[in-house]
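Supplementary Note 2. Why include the ligand at all?

Several targets in our set were suspected to adopt different conformations when bound, so apo predictions alone were not considered sufficient. For every target with a known small-molecule partner we therefore ran a joint prediction. The input for adenosine monophosphate is given below.
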Amino acid sequence: MLILGIETSCDDTGVAILRDNEVLCELLSSQIKFHADYGGVIPEMAARKHLENLLPLVNIALSESKISGRELDLIAVTRGPGLMGALMVGVQTARALSQVWGVPLIGINHLEGHIFAGCEGLKPPFLSLIVSGGHTEIITVRDFGDYELLGQTRDDAAGEAFDKGAKILGLKYPGGPEIEKLARSGNSKAFNFPVPLKNSGLVEFSFSGLKTALLWQVKKFASSEELQANMNDLCASYQAAIIEALIAKIRLAVKLTGIHQVSISGGVSANGALREALRREKGFTISLPELKRCTDNAVMTALAGQNRYLREGITNSEVIADPSLHEI
Ligand code: AMP
Ligand code: MG
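The joint prediction is reproduced in token form.
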């Protein structure tokens, strides 16, 4: 089965062509450098960049895979959740290609895509932790297509905690990789940051208090030199608190469900310290995506689309972008 995947939910334009589970071509155009000056993603600019990049990427992917559009068996596109303008570019392009080539089209929930990014080789049931710039949640995958949301964040996502923390520290956007880099030469026990809801007994996260604790700590320093002198330790301690919160809730979810296989995906799953800490855990096995599949990509959309199509066929012939899509 030949599948074209298209992902434009936020600031990455992703295109992939798969033959069954084999990736023939995988392309990603990151917009980070355009948004970095603003300290976050500008939705209008993201949509315009998708518009510029998407069709050229589709053409390159087809020629690198040595196929024509009409040979495809399926187009899978992310239809939500995400930024409205960004999603619309992907969905409308996919609809047009589907009509012109006469290829079936399937709309995919971005979160189902993330589930497929992290679960290679896993057989359900398993737990899926999605930790990105917009989401932090644990989902029970009873079977593919049969999902239950166990719990999520009450406020900020873990990636947002990295990004907002970095902003407080005067570091570049996106904050996760910056904090990780400086944390490597810092002492994670130098500052005692709170791990919110750690012992609440609930599979829920909260990161806004942690961000405020960082802000108060930074305000305590008398000068920017003092802040700089403590920068690596601050990054290491702040990162450690986020990691501790994530791992505490995985342990709880494992205990509550009795499911001992866990997959993780989303931008924060690229964090080296988190990956190491997860590999050291006893009590569950962890499945981690390759680094390039942690952040948004179209391989995950194509895999989720293929799986859904083989299970259900086309159930929704009119694919519509939905920025606040809930139902996976
Ligand atoms: P996504 O929303 O899945 O596209 O991922 C982007 C988010 O992942 C941003 O909030 C980044 O700060 C975060 N992120 C990316 N790489 C890392 C990393 N190495 N450590 C922590 N967070 C990261
Ligand atoms: Mg994402």
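Residues 85 and 146 are 29 Å apart (CA to CA). The chain has two domains: 2-114+294-312, 123-288. Comparable summaries for the other entries are listed in the accompanying table.
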